[in-house]
Amino acid sequence: PIAAAQRRLPEDLDADNRLLDDEFPLEGGVEQQPAAPVIVQQQAGAAGLQNGEGVLPQPNRGGVNDEERGRKVYGEMGKPVVLPANLTADVKKLVDEGWKNNAFNQYASDLISLHRTLPDPRDEWCKKPGRYLDNLPQTSVIVCFHNEAWSVLLRTVHSILDRSPEHLIREIILVDDFSDMPHLKTQLEEYSENYPKIKIVRAKKREGLIRARLMGARYASAPVLTYLDSHCECTEGWLEPLLDRIAREASTVVCPVIDVIDDSTLEFHYRDAGGVNVGGFDWNLQFNWHVVPDKEKKRHKNAAEPVWSPTMAGGLFAIDKKFFERLGTYDSGFDIWGGENLELSFKTWMCGGTLEIVPCSHVGHIFRKRSPYKWRTGVNVLKKNSIRLAEVWMDDYAKYYYERIGNDLGDYGDITSRKDLRRKLKCKSFKWYLENIYPELFIPGDAVASGEVRNLGYGNKTCLDSPARKTDLNKPAGLYPCHKMGGNQYWMLSKIGEIRRDESCLDYAGNDVILYPCHGSKGNQYWNYDHKTKQLRHGSSRKCLTINSSKDKLLMEECDLMLPKQMWQFENFNAT
Ligand code: LR7
Ligand code: MN
């Protein structure tokens, strides 16, 4: 069939290189990567093995330098691979399959060398001789995967091998979390025969990434563990600045800056070292990014110096193995995905460590818009993990998360050993953590009112409803039948008159009523709520928040005490 000949399936990836040469006889030498995005030409007609323009190239198999082989190279220097719009039906099918199986463009990845080059715009500060200690400890790099694309997994591995000082890598431990993609079975062993540092560990059943990471740690022999997701690319000099921090202080947990590898073109976007972000979280216990607070900026002379971060994203970090064990590693009751990053972040800070983002260290990661793999049926895994996290580490503040999930905790398993651990380690309180490490976070208990905000007009069944995602900032805030499940209908009225959803605020600048990052200076984000009249009068416009008769749009009108459609009822109002 045409498809199989056009593009070798992953099962063939360990085939001998002769096949590769036969398919692409050398012709005209090495092609240079143009500065503009590469347009991959589609193959016309049948699966003829012509070479040159118009031929859709075959995926790379790695282990060889494609450029030296005279093959056309794609995505070098982190450039994007852009597929043409007019793909043949057969190719389109392959592209679609790649997206479906991975939630990124596997087809584009397969065209890129496993050893592709990346830009290195590190700050000069990072490269100063003597910046890092001479005797850095070795590390075991642990990469867990469940059904990762071959080219993406192997590019992760080669970027580690190609861009780390050899003597610092004790081993790369690949933990297969019970994948069923055929290329991840025997081919991986065969491939790694040429790379003695690669060790393969396989789970006998699906463990989820948390227990898979713990499996990896058990096999690790180096004093430092470095975890990476299975779709990463390490840049030049990524490792030394991480190990240096741990060598100087073993209780420092370090994260690289996470650059973005585009899910569609595999373009590598370097994040400016001068403008790093630090990690936070909201009361749904979702991780988020923030600018470096002023107080933290003042601690530094140079923006490339490591910065303290309240939380980590989770997938990319290095930690002293003994310190990790002292902290009780991860809660092995966490299943599949999620929450473990906050668990490790909270206890690092609360139990005597420091969490840093190291701007001199850059690693790319493919950010996906959905999870491509199966989770578990019949249980909300993330919620269960988050409840374990809240129960063990968040003290009284756990209630703010529970409010968000309708106070329905369900069965979250046994957590006594994790509570014992916290007691044994004599860790500080969550209150201490919030006050000292994450003072920027808005505490719902400081709100004057919270919960649903119900409109009393038109049958009083309509509630203020938020656009669901972060990316919906700037979009109009909405209306929806009240559902009493919190979520997008959970709002907080702050002491200074903001109507907040965590870090976003209801904002009116004369057009639509939108959600906008809270700025704390009133103006367009100031709402005066009169508990008796139930009006929400806006600061700068002096108008009142109201709704249209079809109950699907927020409006701003002249205030009128007689109109139920201008009346709003907060679910919880703390009149003090
Ligand atoms: O059952 C599973 N078994 C696994 O081995 C599910 C996943 N995995 C592997 C998977 O193949 C991948 O290598 O675990 C890794 C993480 O899974 P992803 O890539 O689907 O997760 P993510 O990148 O969307 O999620 C982020 O949050 C997770 C919460 O549990 C983990 O901490 C991820 O490591 C983390 N990724 C990052 O921090 C990269 C930057 C993302 C941001 C912000
Ligand atoms: Mn990931």
Automatic annotation (TrEMBL):
Main location: Golgi
Annotated Ricin B lectin domain residues: 450-571
Hydrolase recorded as keyword: no
Keyword RNA-binding appears in the UniProt entry: no
BP terms from Gene Ontology: protein O-linked glycosylation
Protein EC: 2.4.1.-
Localization per record: Golgi apparatus membrane
Single GO MF descriptor: polypeptide N-acetylgalactosaminyltransferase activity
Keywords: Disulfide bond, Glycoprotein, Glycosyltransferase, Golgi apparatus, Lectin, Manganese, Membrane, Metal-binding, Signal-anchor, Transferase, Transmembrane, Transmembrane helix
Class of the enzyme per the UniProt entry, highest EC level: transferase
InterPro entries from the UniProt entry: GalNAc-T, Glyco_trans_2-like, Nucleotide-diphossugar_trans, Ricin_B-like_lectins, Ricin_B_lectin
SUPFAM superfamilies per the UniProt record, alphabetical: Nucleotide-diphospho-sugar transferases, Ricin B-like lectins
Its membrane topology: Single-pass type II membrane protein
Coiled-coil region: none
Cofactors named for this entry: Mn(2+)
One GO cellular component, as annotated: Golgi membrane
Catalysed reactions listed for this entry: L-threonyl-[protein] + UDP-N-acetyl-alpha-D-galactosamine = a 3-O-[N-acetyl-alpha-D-galactosaminyl]-L-threonyl-[protein] + UDP + H(+); L-seryl-[protein] + UDP-N-acetyl-alpha-D-galactosamine = a 3-O-[N-acetyl-alpha-D-galactosaminyl]-L-seryl-[protein] + UDP + H(+)
Pathway membership, UniProt: Protein modification; protein glycosylation
CDD domains named in the record: beta-trefoil_Ricin_Pgant9-like, pp-GalNAc-T
Family according to the record: Belongs to the glycosyltransferase 2 family. GalNAc-T subfamily.
Name of this protein: Polypeptide N-acetylgalactosaminyltransferase
